[in-house]
Amino acid sequence: MDFISILSIFVLACFVGYYVVWSVTPALHTPLMAVTNAISSVIIVGALIASAASGAEVAKWLGLVAVALASVNIFGGFAVTERMLAMYKKKG
Amino acid sequence: MHEGAPVNPWVALAYLVAGICFILALRGLSSPASSRRGNRLGMLGMAIAVVTTLITHEIASPIELGAAIAIGGVIGFVTARRIAMTAMPQLVAAFHSLVGMAAVLVAAAAFLNPGAFGILGPDGEILSISRIEMGLGVAIGAITFSGSVIAFLKLNGNMSGKPILLPGRHVINLGVLAGILGLIGYFVTDQSPWVFWTVTALSFVIGFLLIVPIGGADMPVVVSMLNSYSGWAAAAMGFTLHNTAMIVTGALVGSSGAILSYIMCRAMNRSFISVIAGGFGAVADSGGSGAAIDRPWKRGSAEDAAFLMSQAEQVIIVPGYGMAVAQAQHALREMGDKLKEHGVRVKYAIHPVAGRMPGHMNVLLAEANVPYDEVFELEDINSEFAQTDVAFVIGANDVTNPAAKTDKSSPIYGMPVLDVEKAKTVLFIKRSMGGVGYAGVDNELFYRDNTMMLLADAKKMVEEIVKSLD
Known about the structure:
By secondary structure, chain A is mainly alpha-helical. Chain A is built from 4 helices and no strands. The longest helix of chain A has 31 residues, at 57-87. The radius of gyration of chain A is 18 Å and the shape is flat. The N and C termini of chain A lie far apart (53 Å). Chain B has helices at residues 9-28, 32-56, 62-82, 88-112, 114-117, 128-155, 169-189, 193-211, 219-241, 244-268, 272-277, 302-310, 321-326, 329-341, 360-367, 378-381, 403-406, 458-469, and strands spanning 314-319, 345-350, 375-377, 390-394, 425-430, 451-455. Chain B: This is NAD(P) transhydrogenase subunit beta. Chain B: It catalyses: NAD(+) + NADPH + H(+)(in) = NADH + NADP(+) + H(+)(out).
């Protein structure tokens, strides 16, 4: 993919983000932060590629540590969001 | 992935699907009813992204990867299960720091081994555009990391919540920022390791310098801002890796944090720049409040409060950070239940900056089993105070100060506040008459004829009121 197509995806995604986030109810702003935290750990994709790096031992270990850190976030972020959301109940 | 490498359209499609799952995850949060489905979609998106990478890239040995994921996963999962809801702001700050660190590590790995990421040009050097992306990625990641660590220490009480002001900090900060940007520019022409590592080191320093002068009460803005940065860091790395899932996610998270920062700033009537410049609440300690001490005020007991509220038609409860500190949410809900038994209508009013992060109070009330349809935002409930018998303020201060509407000299002038003083009676729980809110200003509300001060620990006071209601 060339830079311009990537940039287009990015800019359009920013607009999507803008409208989607404004539609989030303020009562759920804390879960919103927790879940955005979890999904931003999609950076694990980069970490997985780095950890493969044959021939570059240091890069590989950096990658593995990044995989572990991102995993804390993925599991922790989704689990804590799930826990919070389960608490929101209607009357009765 | 890059020029020359075979591009598998299915891989690109899978990352796109993951990105869509993430959009739907956020979309689900538009109402509590759809939110859990949204969260599941988020998990699905993450699984798709990870599995796609695992089957389409050369990866480390399954044992090493499995160990890394298991260690991280267990730590994350156990922490998420055990953490107290009142500690949510510091948990989120800690999680942000991890995203930042992961971005730094990935950028460093890409710099050390560019071939694996497909960012080498035909001349064997890293592509210029990738150098900029990588430089920005590592800089934003490092700022996110060190900034979040400071935010965590402040929120967790390991570090004073008071703003710490260095002399000449604006000049230092701007200088360091200019240095980082200049070096990233220079990185395009010279890919020597020292450039990359200096950018990284300076970015760690600036993250620290930026957050240290910001006081505890401005933390909702800081936490939102760092949330935004963690997104931009992921997006920058997505550019480097040409990965749609990362770019879409980064853009979503980046805008999410930016919008939350904006909402928080608006709720304090302060500009983003003034929050980031820091120091709010540090200057007001020096004096000015002395004149107010002798003004008359009324003190009430738990029995008085119980009597007043049980006779009321409607009570609006206004919680603030003090409720979180005292862990009074469960006792508060019990009080609400008792009042309902007396035929009183009970509602909760939440100011956007109550607490230490956006939505902090809502989560605590939800934890205490307060139904979310009894909890209202400022603009939805403010007109109701005039027809309300009792406004019950617990642990909130500045967000109820009428001076924000009338006193032009007040530091909080212009901030939208809850009109509690319009209620027939205001019950205000406070530890003592001495302390002031985070803005360092005295609250007009304490001295009004219709205000009754309940001086005690918030939780104890509420528990006593519950007893008196029997």
